[in-house]
Design brief:
This protein has 466 residues and is an alpha/beta fold. It is built from 13 helices and 16 strands.
Length: 466
């Protein structure tokens, strides 16, 4: 056999190169914040185009969190594929953990399988875990929030030390800083390896500081209030005085909430423009056809709905988030209402890349949903916030239980007729059987996921463990 023919046969037998991976994470972006999906008030041309060439999950959710800074467990769940109860035990309380610990992370796994891994932007789970995942990166925001024009960023340090003295704020908007860095990494990547780039914006988290050009796109007097706007929440949900809720006085006024929404839309549109620059860089480098793109929000936000501003609750506005996938193997122009968690992204990437799913992963691959958008992965989705809110959602119903300072409340919403969660049916005689069935299913699923609370007890059996 000639050398040339043998080389051709070997080349034909070799597996195709794995695609590049770009995961983009927005901060505090609710599911009703993309024009192409559900909101004609907002302008998101980049995300609209991404949806047109990919698959959008309209019912993607976080599971919640056991602390007020919900973005911490959300980011840990995304990285590890674990649910909020497991990730709290394994990641949040041990951010100093280094190498051999009982969980895996998807960038770490890709690094071990020949990828060059790069991390840019907000990282809220400690420097040791950052360096388990990424070979290159920066600038990095190691905290949770900051002035967008004075972001306390660190440059990537191979020594893995990040003293406060090394913080170098730049006189530039955070979204532009992180997009610039992503573009540079794309341009200067190691072309002998596939690229796995994690780009975590800190927008649209407050303080919402859109550039004037974008703010002018949203005159406050033209902003429509959501149907479920309320001056105050109708009862104590256990977390009405947290920092997020104190951003406006009570009762909320229509004028003050319109300003918040205007700022919110404007900073999202600005972030959308920066994402457009990053995707244009992929085009220039000839990478678009060979890159799987994942866009998601780390959690939602109320911004005036139900009399709330923050994400420390289990209403849809706070637990439902955008999720879009595009690229090789992803159907274009497809939408699905199949319910998925963000921690399902890890096993999904594994299946798309033909890599084994680690045993520590709780999530389920939604590749079957990509193939059949009507496919259901779960009968119900459970949610938790700290030790005093628990909920379950099915395709039709949402049931929430509260235990605030010993006072229990219940809500039942028929989401098919009431998508804004405005009419509580929990005490309606005709819905007692439904409520009981949901309560039973919720307790079972919470227990299966590792929840330590016992909702049959007056205090839910809370012993200060979370």
């Amino acid at each position: 056999m000639s050398i040339s023919r043998r080389s051709l046969l070997l080349a034909a037998a070799a597996p195709p190169p794995r695609p590049n991976i770009l995961v983009v994470y927005a901060d505090d972006m609710t599911h009703r914040s993309i024009r192409a999906l559900n909101n004609p008030q907002i302008h998101t041309p980049t995300l609209d185009k991404l949806i047109a060439r990919g698959t959008a999950f309209t019912h993607a959710c976080i599971m919640g969190g056991l602390q007020p800074a919900v973005c911490v467990p959300s980011r840990a769940m995304l990285m590890t594929g674990q649910n909020t109860f497991h990730v709290t035990a394994n990641v949040e309380k041990k951010p100093e953990w280094g190498a051999a610990q009982p969980f895996h992370m998807w960038p770490e796994m890709l690094k071990e399988n020949g990828y060059q891994t790069v991390g840019i932007g907000k990282w809220h789970n400690g420097p040791a875990l950052y360096h388990r995942n990424f070979q290159k990166g920066g600038p990095i925001l190691l905290g949770g929030m900051a002035d967008h024009y004075k972001t306390p960023i660190h440059e990537f340090n191979p020594e893995q030390t990040y003293p406060k003295s090394d913080v170098k704020p730049r006189d530039q908007h955070s979204s532009e800083i992180f997009a610039d860095a992503a573009i540079a990494q794309i341009r200067n990547r190691d072309k002998t390896k596939p690229l796995a780039l994690y780009l975590a914006f800190t927008a649209p988290h407050d303080p919402r500081q859109p550039p004037r050009k974008y703010k002018d796109m949203y005159p406050e007097e033209r902003i429509e209030l959501p149907p479920n706007f309320l001056p105050e929440h109708p009862f104590d949900n256990g977390e009405l005085k947290v920092r997020d809720e104190a951003l406006l006085p009570w009762p909320r006024t229509a004028q003050s909430v319109r300003k918040e929404i205007s700022d919110y839309y404007a900073i999202i549109t600005h972030m959308d423009a920066q994402l457009g620059r990053v995707l244009a860089a992929l085009d220039r480098e000839g990478m678009t056809r060979d890159t799987i793109i994942v866009f998601a929000g780390d959690n939602g936000l109320a911004v005036g709905q139900h009399g709330l501003l923050g994400k420390q609750n289990l209403y849809d506005h706070s637990i439902r988030v955008p999720l879009i996938l595009a690229g090789p193997g992803i159907p274009a122009g497809q939408r699905t209402d199949s319910m998925v968690y963000l921690f399902d992204i890890f096993p999904t990437l594994c299946e798309l890349l033909q890599l084994p799913v680690p045993a520590t992963v709780d999530g389920k691959s939604f590749v079957p949903v990509l193939k059949d958008p009507k496919r259901r992965l779960r009968d119900g989705m459970v949610y938790a916030y700290r030790h005093f809110q628990r909920a379950i959602r099915t395709t039709r119903w949402k049931y929430i239980r509260y235990n605030a300072k010993g006072v229990q409340q219940q809500q039942l919403f028929d989401l098919s007729a009431d998508p804004w969660e405005m009419k509580n049916l929990a005490n309606e005689p005709d819905h007692q059987e439904t409520r009981g069935q949901l309560d039973t299913l919720m307790r079972m699923l919470l227990k299966q996921n590792g929840d330590a609370l016992d909702l049959s007890k007056p205090d839910w059996g809370w012993k200060g463990a979370v």
